Amino acid sequence: MVKSCLIFLMLPVMALGQENPFFNPGGYFLSLGSAEIRTASIATGDVDSDGDLDVVTAEGRHWPAPNSIFYNVGNGVFRTSRVLDSEWSSCYAAELGDLDGDGDLDIVTGNDMHPNIWYRNNGKGLFERAGLVGGKTTPTRNVALSDIDGDGDLDVLFTNRGSANEIAINDGSGNFNTIVPFGSDEDSTIDIVAADMNQDGKLDLVLANRDEQQNYVYLQEGSLVFKEKIPFGTGKDETRSVAIGDINNDGYPDIVTGNLVGSNYVYLGNGKDFKNTIPYEKEDLATASVKVADLNNDGFIDIVNANGDEVNYAYINTGKNSFEKIPLNPEIKMDTYDIHLADINGDNYLDILEANSGDLNLYYLNRCGRIKKDK
């Protein structure tokens, strides 16, 4: 199949003739570069302060590879400028945030059995190593940035499969001298989200665990004290990813899971537990990543899944505890490790970006706004 032979001037014409609201002409035309390596995750942010969203990819997983920055030149068109670091690492995750409080976006990487690193932005989208983050060399699988201690700066949360998870506390200037572990060395935590799940004003931790381990919400009782755990799921789920959103619009945050084995569920929150469920995907799609957001700007939170050697899907929330399942492209099956939602062309609709292992990293422009106008 031809992967890149069209001209961007054709995009508006071709878009009008497409039924699918998620648009990538020819299936492969919109991609981040031409490399086919083991991409593990994608993050977006305006790293060069020019008003549009750029992309950082985390590469390699167990095998060292260069992480890359793709600079958006407008309308969702990217050029590759450089690799992030000349010293390659076996990277599973990269996240963007202002770690040193100077107003621009820095990068932190989570690496497998290699030190986790943060990179300082010079304000123009160029980066240099600033220091290590985390207490030890660990099998890191994911990174999240959050002001978990409520002091006004971004802390770094690491999930470490087969080792205790860590919170690296930021002093406000990008120094991470205090490490708070949570969980145990037996935990197989793959993903984490910080959110106020019981609405007490403190951020809690929502964990996705593999190896048939119980998934938990760790409630923050005091400053960085996580004693009470609320279980969700069967206790033996192979959960690879979690996302948080008020799916049923009842005012309480819900948990959306992506499972490597079996069906995927929404666990409805009520401020106390997550016992009520909605199976939003009953097929076993080997889901590796799940994200939630309002894709069509109708006031309901939708779901997007990344699957292993399967078609990736968006699930449009109908508002009736049910979803319309839409394939991003029914002809394409890739080993997608991460899915990311961001408005990369500035039309106020969230687009979809894929981190694919051993294939092109594709992205799909969201045409929901154009379809509404056509109707």
From TrEMBL:
InterPro entries per UniProt: FG-GAP, Integrin_alpha_N
Chain ranges passing through the membrane: none
Position of the signal peptide: 1-15
Keyword hit for Signal: yes
Keyword list, A-Z: Signal
Signal recorded as keyword: yes
Listed Gene3D superfamilies: Integrin alpha, N-terminal
The protein, known as: FG-GAP repeat domain-containing protein
Biological classification of the source: Bacteria, Pseudomonadati, Bacteroidota, Flavobacteriia, Flavobacteriales
